[in-house]
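Exercise 3.2. Students should predict the tertiary structure of the chain below and write it as structure tokens, then compare their answer with the key that follows.

Predict this chain's 3D structure.
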Amino acid sequence: MRKILLSVFFLSFGIITNAQNDKWTLQECIEYALEQNISVQQSALDVELAETQISDAIGNFLPNINASASNSWNTGLTQNVTTGILQTQTTRNFSAGVTGSLTLFDGLRNFKQLQLAKMNRLASEYSLEQMKDDISLFVANSYLQVLFNKENYKVIAAQHEITLQQLERVQELVDAGSVPKGDLLEIKATAANEEQRMIVAENQIKISLVALAQILQIKDYETFDIVDRDYDVFGSEIMDIPVSEVIDAAEEERYEVKVAEMNEEMAKKQQEIAKGAYYPTLGAFINYNTRESGAGRIVAGGLDPDEPYRQIGFVEETQQAVVAPNMSTEIGNPLPFFEQLELNDGISYGVQLNIPILNGFSTRNAVKRSEIDVRRSQYQLEQTKLDLEANVYQAYTDAKGALKAYEAALLALEAQLLAYDYATERYDVGMTNALDFSQAKFNLENAQSEVVRTKFDYIFKLKVLELYFGVPITELKF
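Answer key:
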């Protein structure tokens, strides 16, 4: 009987090689979650945004080129652009130009802005990888929970099969008058209780499968299932490494530390950019412009032949008239559009130097704010390392405790198997009643369930510790 129970229990952990194609493996669940999870996708968008910031920073080194054109009509008293005389008229004027400017020196702020953008991209990549690790571990925990519920159901089902066999045997003994009917009723009650617990165990499987499907954002809850296979304890050698070495490895490998370190470097770079505003800025510019007008142009002019001179005043003492030439002009049609543009164009160019003298303390205050941000990032880095150290100690202690619990569960199972064998032998010869036998069987089932629970708990906590030690999530062995 003992050999049968051991075979039934440990065969429930065996690898099912003929698993259906529509069942999901742990690796498939993790890969699918990394592709579909919204948090991972949002972190990936942060990386894309950081790429555009790098492009913006590179663009600051390029010249700015802008073109402009305008065409306007003026009605009323305006100056005639051809005669210079104010007159009531409607005129049309067109102008166009192209301006180019280039920053030659700005306190190296553009160069440092590019460095900052590259740091930000790296920090975004670290955050993305950290998110992937967190999601992967979360999926693995949910996956192992489903496996635990399935193995727990197998334990109950295996015990129920034995109960049914025992029920048939006791029925024959009762019919033969060898044992009292009360023993039969006790076995039937045990079978009914096991059926009830099997229903509860089935519901737990369904609930855990739905929870895993929700993590993966799979809507088809009814057909979703995972591959039934055994997961052995791999990587237990990490338990022999001193916890101080695990902490050192975690500080070097964990992405939360890398993100905090990068935030500190970014804060220092922001401080350098803020200090760059103290320096003068030097820029160069060039401008090309031209214009065209719809007003008539002077085609001929000179003294008026009918009245070459006109009186403009007189000398008060001598009453002598003061005259001036009386000029006459002939206004013709404007020149063609493109001809005017060619005749009226011009180019201007030069350099411009801006020296900051007083700007309402804005530069000084910006530098002070950047110094505060540097100190804040340093505190955050220190806090991140302290939190990581505490988490590693906790994970190390949890893994140690889970290992001891698993080993204790194995010893308890061995003891319960012996107790069950002894109870079976006593019951077969009539030295104990069905109640005591059922209690021994129930204790064995609890011991089997505890082995399953502690095993998967130990596996998960061991993987957490490996992750802290720097083992990539894709290389964790289950």
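Discussion points: Confidence is low (pLDDT under 50) at residues 1-21. Residues 2-84+94-293+360-475 form a domain with the Outer membrane efflux proteins (OEP) fold (CATH 1.20.1600.10).
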